DNA sequence: GCGGATCAC
DNA sequence: TATGGTGATCCGC
């Protein structure tokens, strides 16, 4: 219905001129920004209303949705022929259910942008001036807190899965290859990226882009093993390093750099790996085309020119003499040449095939070194005392240990370090000097999309305001303050000021655990329940492995049309057994099946998540009553005993969540103490096996009482929806629940679907009565609510909403507390199943 | 607390 | 033929 008026984004417009330009020094300086007068610059592109007017839609209308277009925001993807690639993607996708759903989502984003622009039109210069004062106050505070004292590093393995596969099958090295399957790719090597083949792209599309592409399946065990090897190294430099995935981590070298002053030369010397001995020079070890054995490092004539700067060659050479007689010892290692990278940092866009293949001007020097290596070979390298050298050392050790290369970024904060690690990727590193000028110069022309946390949608929204780079972002700070929530505008402000977290925070406790699977269409209720049961069993296993229990069960459904819907239901006590989880999940599922009757619920994916987690061991285990309670809910429907299969191609689902890395020496735990009195349910599965031929027997209190449970699960019925003040309020109920469970030990219980409190019931009638009371309470509450809203018509200012993933502020983890209280006009998207 | 969306990897 | 899985955060109810 709404899919007609789609705005097409101009993707190709500025392509080709964007690449890597952001790194070049620019003459205009940011330090003039804080003089408070730079608003004048805004006047250059303002309309009568004083606000920027930028069109969102594509004047050329060449038909590429931004959502469908190639996402080239990735290392090794500069200078591609995007027009051709997007055409192939489009032609291959057009007409598919996936494509149609993407169109729908695109239309929604366009609506959001339109709403934002409407708000924009209503903003007066006066408002903006006031906002500017406010925002500049904030900016001043932020400026005062600027901190250059930390040496933060972000390290990221190059083409990780693909590199592992190439290492173990050298015949792949000179071919474009990807890891995954015809349905989905996990990643690709740099050779394949030249064709536009990248992670999260379906294999069959990748094959159209690059018919010679070799696709190999995943081996998660290997990736995990490599990850462990890498983490073992990182832990020696910062015991509090923070892994963000199997292939990357943040860490802080500040302390290590202090301690390092005391280290002997031997302690700064590391052997080449056995694999790297005589026969093969490092050069061709790594992935064939991307070997670029000459590490791409900045050439800084000005850095510690002494022994240290010389990085590999000199530095290594210095102690070579001690360790290895050969003076010339041709730096075989990848990190050898010092000054190579800077000259080539600006890629030659005209020749994409060579641009990122590492076949660069440095090549000559490399081969030169390699030649020397043949005659006399080094057994080890010694590293100096600067940050750069430490990071070189880490990357060297990683490569010698795993035969895989990594790239790294060094900066005074996490946000910048992350961007830097991509800059000289693959097999390179980049440092931003820890002073304001260097940092500001780095940031000013930086496209906002490079910043972690700014994704496709945010990029489009900001683009609609004429914001492309960080300079724009700063100049429009007043507007952003008016249009976005406090947390978002402050986030933007921090980015534009090149500020980020200066601490790498330890992994926080997990907040949820989930499992989901894509499958060929299922629509028969028995199959759906069976799948649900499998998922619950798998989830329960994972939960028990980590000794976790939780109170909120959420199911996720994706229809064959790719529409996603989630349904949640919280129960008063923490659970983690398959039976308990399933008893809740199946009711949620049943309601959805019923809701779209008489049409079948046609799904391509189902998921189950448990949140509101607590540690099982920390909680009081009151099995008795809870067990009884859940026996009532328990349903034998699907005792298929099967676990969901992992995704055949990406192998996802096999990489089970693991307890966090073992390297952490000790973290003075100040974990928030959980409510130690919560009840844990550990229900021994004593359920009778049952053929999963049909809908589960409705043994749960829900259906015992009300055959049409649609109206009674608190999360399903709209009319009795939760209200934070009363009905479904957990906080309040927790204490009550404890009382109930304590008092009710040994008695039979039903869970009231309205208040969610287990009711000790001797008979069904009493329970029904209780439910009626709750229902009335709910009705009254709704009435009061309605009345209140009539009395007090929404005096809320409109604000553009921006749902963000990941970090709200800057650090690897953050918790922003305050939220803006303004609301957007209600927009209900209840198009599901319609 | 719930549901939708965005984001990263 | 064919478009993933896990976890987190934010917004508006
Ligand atoms: N959408 C994605 C992105 C990544 N990955 C996996 C495969 C990658 O190898 C690994 C690391 O992700 P990166 O973003 O670091 O990508 P690569 O390491 O593959 O390439 P590079 O870091 O060189 O750009 O995570 C995935 O499964 N799905
Ligand atoms: Mg990587
Ligand atoms: Mg990564």
Automatic annotation (TrEMBL):
<dbReference type="GO" id="GO:0008270">
    <property type="term" value="F:zinc ion binding"/>
</dbReference>
<feature type="compositionally biased region" description="Low complexity">
    <location>
        <begin position="684"/>
        <end position="701"/>
    </location>
</feature>
<keyword id="KW-0234">DNA repair</keyword>
<keyword id="KW-0548">Nucleotidyltransferase</keyword>
<feature type="compositionally biased region" description="Polar residues">
    <location>
        <begin position="824"/>
        <end position="834"/>
    </location>
</feature>
<keyword id="KW-0479">Metal-binding</keyword>
<protein>
    <recommendedName>
        <fullName>DNA polymerase kappa</fullName>
        <ecNumber>2.7.7.7</ecNumber>
    </recommendedName>
</protein>
<feature type="domain" description="UmuC">
    <location>
        <begin position="152"/>
        <end position="455"/>
    </location>
</feature>
<dbReference type="GO" id="GO:0003887">
    <property type="term" value="F:DNA-directed DNA polymerase activity"/>
</dbReference>
<keyword id="KW-0239">DNA-directed DNA polymerase</keyword>
<keyword id="KW-0863">Zinc-finger</keyword>
<feature type="region of interest" description="Disordered">
    <location>
        <begin position="633"/>
        <end position="739"/>
    </location>
</feature>
<feature type="compositionally biased region" description="Basic and acidic residues">
    <location>
        <begin position="19"/>
        <end position="36"/>
    </location>
</feature>
<feature type="region of interest" description="Disordered">
    <location>
        <begin position="270"/>
        <end position="330"/>
    </location>
</feature>
<dbReference type="InterPro" id="IPR006642">
    <property type="entry name" value="Rad18_UBZ4"/>
</dbReference>
<dbReference type="InterPro" id="IPR024728">
    <property type="entry name" value="PolY_HhH_motif"/>
</dbReference>
<feature type="region of interest" description="Disordered">
    <location>
        <begin position="786"/>
        <end position="834"/>
    </location>
</feature>
<feature type="compositionally biased region" description="Polar residues">
    <location>
        <begin position="321"/>
        <end position="330"/>
    </location>
</feature>
<feature type="region of interest" description="Disordered">
    <location>
        <begin position="1"/>
        <end position="64"/>
    </location>
</feature>
<dbReference type="InterPro" id="IPR043502">
    <property type="entry name" value="DNA/RNA_pol_sf"/>
</dbReference>
<feature type="coiled-coil region">
    <location>
        <begin position="99"/>
        <end position="126"/>
    </location>
</feature>
<feature type="compositionally biased region" description="Polar residues">
    <location>
        <begin position="40"/>
        <end position="58"/>
    </location>
</feature>
<feature type="compositionally biased region" description="Acidic residues">
    <location>
        <begin position="1"/>
        <end position="18"/>
    </location>
</feature>
<feature type="compositionally biased region" description="Polar residues">
    <location>
        <begin position="275"/>
        <end position="285"/>
    </location>
</feature>
<feature type="compositionally biased region" description="Polar residues">
    <location>
        <begin position="295"/>
        <end position="312"/>
    </location>
</feature>
<dbReference type="InterPro" id="IPR050116">
    <property type="entry name" value="DNA_polymerase-Y"/>
</dbReference>
<dbReference type="GO" id="GO:0006260">
    <property type="term" value="P:DNA replication"/>
</dbReference>
<keyword id="KW-0227">DNA damage</keyword>
<keyword id="KW-0862">Zinc</keyword>
<dbReference type="GO" id="GO:0005634">
    <property type="term" value="C:nucleus"/>
</dbReference>
<keyword id="KW-0539">Nucleus</keyword>
<dbReference type="Pfam" id="PF11798">
    <property type="entry name" value="IMS_HHH"/>
</dbReference>
<dbReference type="InterPro" id="IPR017961">
    <property type="entry name" value="DNA_pol_Y-fam_little_finger"/>
</dbReference>
<keyword id="KW-0235">DNA replication</keyword>
<dbReference type="GO" id="GO:0006281">
    <property type="term" value="P:DNA repair"/>
</dbReference>
<keyword id="KW-0460">Magnesium</keyword>
<dbReference type="InterPro" id="IPR036775">
    <property type="entry name" value="DNA_pol_Y-fam_lit_finger_sf"/>
</dbReference>
<feature type="compositionally biased region" description="Polar residues">
    <location>
        <begin position="659"/>
        <end position="669"/>
    </location>
</feature>
<dbReference type="InterPro" id="IPR043128">
    <property type="entry name" value="Rev_trsase/Diguanyl_cyclase"/>
</dbReference>
<keyword id="KW-0515">Mutator protein</keyword>
<keyword id="KW-0175">Coiled coil</keyword>
<feature type="domain" description="UBZ4-type">
    <location>
        <begin position="749"/>
        <end position="779"/>
    </location>
</feature>
């Amino acid at each position: 219905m709404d899919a007609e008026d789609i705005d097409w984004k101009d993707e190709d417009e500025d392509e080709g001129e964007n690449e890597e330009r952001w790194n070049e020094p620019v003459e205009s300086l940011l330090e003039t920004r804080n003089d408070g007068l730079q608003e004048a610059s805004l006047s250059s592109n303002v309309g009568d209303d004083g606000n920027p007017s930028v069109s969102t839609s594509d004047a050329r209308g060449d038909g590429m949705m931004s959502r469908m277009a190639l996402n080239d925001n990735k290392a090794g993807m500069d200078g591609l022929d995007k027009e051709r690639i997007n055409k192939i993607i489009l032609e291959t996708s057009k007409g598919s259910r996936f494509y149609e759903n993407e169109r729908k989502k695109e239309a929604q984003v366009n609506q959001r942008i339109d709403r934002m622009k409407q708000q924009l039109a209503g903003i007066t210069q006066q408002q903006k001036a006031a906002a500017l004062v406010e925002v500049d106050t904030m900016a001043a505070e932020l400026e005062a807190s600027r901190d250059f004292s930390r040496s933060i590093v972000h390290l990221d393995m190059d083409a990780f899965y693909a590199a592992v596969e190439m290492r173990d099958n050298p015949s792949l090295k000179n071919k474009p290859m990807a890891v995954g399957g015809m349905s989905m790719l996990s990643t690709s090597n740099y050779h394949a990226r030249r064709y536009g083949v990248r992670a999260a792209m379906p294999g069959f599309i990748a094959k159209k882009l690059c018919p010679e592409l070799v696709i190999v399946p995943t081996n998660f065990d290997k990736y995990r093993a490599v990850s462990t090897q890498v983490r073992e190294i990182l832990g020696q430099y910062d015991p509090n390093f923070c892994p963000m995935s199997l292939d990357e981590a943040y860490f802080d070298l500040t302390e290590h750099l202090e301690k390092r002053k005391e280290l002997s030369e031997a302690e700064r010397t590391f052997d080449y790996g056995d694999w790297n001995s005589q026969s093969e020079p490092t050069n061709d070890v790594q992935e064939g085309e991307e070997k670029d054995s000459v590490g791409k490092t900045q050439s800084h004539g000005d850095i510690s020119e002494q022994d240290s700067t010389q990085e590999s060659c000199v530095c290594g050479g210095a102690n070579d003499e001690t360790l290895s007689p050969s003076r010339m010892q041709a730096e075989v290692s990848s990190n050898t040449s010092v000054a190579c990278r800077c000259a080539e940092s600006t890629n030659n866009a005209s020749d994409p095939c060579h641009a990122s293949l590492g076949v660069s001007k440095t090549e000559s020097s490399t081969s030169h070194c390699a030649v020397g290596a043949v005659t006399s070979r080094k057994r080890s390298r010694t590293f100096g005392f600067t940050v750069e050298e430490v990071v070189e050392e880490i990357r060297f050790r990683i490569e010698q240990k795993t035969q895989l290369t990594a790239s790294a970024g060094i900066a005074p904060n996490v946000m910048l370090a992350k961007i830097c690690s991509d800059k000289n990727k693959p097999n390179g590193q980049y440092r931003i000097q820890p002073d304001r000028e260097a940092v500001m110069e780095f940031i000013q022309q930086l496209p906002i999309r490079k910043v972690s946390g700014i994704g496709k949608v945010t990029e489009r929204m900001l683009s609609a305001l004429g914001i492309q780079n960080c300079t724009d972002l700063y100049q429009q700070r007043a507007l952003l303050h008016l249009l976005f929530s406090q947390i978002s505008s402050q986030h933007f402000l921090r980015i534009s000021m090149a500020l980020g977290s200066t601490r790498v925070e330890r992994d926080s406790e997990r907040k949820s655990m989930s499992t989901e699977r894509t499958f060929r269409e299922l629509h028969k209720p028995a199959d759906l329940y069976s799948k649900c049961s499998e998922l619950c069993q798998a989830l329960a296993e994972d939960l028990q492995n980590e000794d976790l229990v939780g109170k909120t069960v959420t199911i996720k459904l994706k229809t064959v049309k790719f529409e996603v819907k989630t349904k949640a239901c919280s129960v008063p006590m923490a659970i983690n057994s398959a039976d308990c989880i399933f008893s809740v999940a199946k009711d949620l599922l049943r309601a959805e099946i019923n809701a779209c009757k008489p049409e079948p619920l046609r799904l391509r994916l189902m998921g189950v998540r448990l949140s509101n987690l607590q540690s099982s061991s920390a909680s009081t285990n009151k099995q008795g009553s809870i067990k009884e309670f859940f026996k009532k809910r328990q349903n034998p429907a699907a005792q298929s005993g099967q676990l969901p299969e992992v995704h055949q191609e990406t192998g996802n689902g096999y990489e089970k969540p693991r307890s966090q890395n073992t390297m952490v020496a000790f973290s003075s735990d100040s974990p928030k103490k959980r409510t130690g009195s919560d009840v844990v349910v550990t229900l021994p599965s004593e359920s009778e096996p049952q053929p999963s031929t049909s809908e589960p027997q409705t043994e749960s209190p829900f259906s015992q009482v009300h055959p049409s449970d649609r109206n009674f699960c608190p999360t399903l019925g709209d009319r009795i929806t939760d209200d934070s003040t009363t009905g479904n309020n957990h906080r309040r109920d927790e204490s009550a629940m404890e009382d109930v469970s304590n008092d009710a030990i040994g008695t039979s219980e039903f869970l009231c679907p309205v208040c969610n409190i287990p009711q000790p019931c001797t008979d069904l009638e009493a329970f029904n009565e209780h439910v009626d009371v709750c229902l009335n309470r709910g009705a009254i509450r709704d009435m009061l609510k309605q009345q209140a809203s009539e009395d007090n018509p929404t005096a809320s200012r409109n604000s553009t909403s921006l749902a963000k993933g990941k970090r709200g502020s800057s650090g690897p983890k953050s918790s922003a507390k305050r939220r803006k209280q303004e609301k957007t006009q209600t927009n209900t998207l209840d198009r599901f199943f319609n």
